[in-house]
Amino acid sequence: MDTVTIARPGLAELVERVGAVAARRLPARETAFAVADLLRERLPGLDILTEEERLGSPDTYVSRVLHAQDEFSIVAVIWRPGQETVIHDHVSWCAFAVLSGNEHETLYRDEGDRLVEIGRADNRPGEVSGFAPPGDIHKVRNTSAETGVSIHVYGADVGRLGSSVRRVYELPVTGSR
To answer: What 3-state class would DSSP assign to 38?
Structure first.
């Protein structure tokens, strides 16, 4: 097992707790929900990042790998106001927690030749959720006036893969039907 970890307040404990869930080898959706429960029980603080890291980048949101190993990765995402992802899905299950800002998420269903918007959610500080493919097509945007920080736990080694994104969608989008 190849492991990459950066020492940070609360990270070692989170790695240990997520590792115990991952070792149970539950189905992906159940793992995502179990890890989300761990995050709810003991949410990391903003001090998991340095003050400088919490500034983010003026150009785009920043993903910072805090821990990566074969079974899972822990990533901090820093979003300045208005920054957003492209429409995408993921290589694995994910659980995430919002530490600051507001992550507005738009969910989509792939209809083959187009995407259909199927829902929206505003994830505020302290809120936690989890999901697993398939059906995880979404776009996320920081709609708050402050820089947002969120912690994402993925069921893959994003240090090795370079990203948690499986596919970017460039299909036309229509409203729900």
So the answer is: helix
CATH number of 4-174: 2.60.120.10
**Which residue ranges make up each domain of the chain?**
4-174
What is d(CA 71, CA 39) in angstroms, rounded to the nearest whole number?
Answer: 17
Q: Are 32 and 132 in contact (CB under 8 A)?
A: yes
Residue 9's CB is within 10 A of a number of other CB atoms, namely 12
CB 146 within 8 A of CB 83: no
> Using CA atoms, how far apart are residues 29 and 153, in angstroms rounded to an integer?
13
Instruction: Please write the tens of the pLDDT for every residue from 85-113.
Output: 999 999 899 999 999 999 999 999 999 99
Q: What DSSP element (H or E) covers 73?
A: strand 73-79
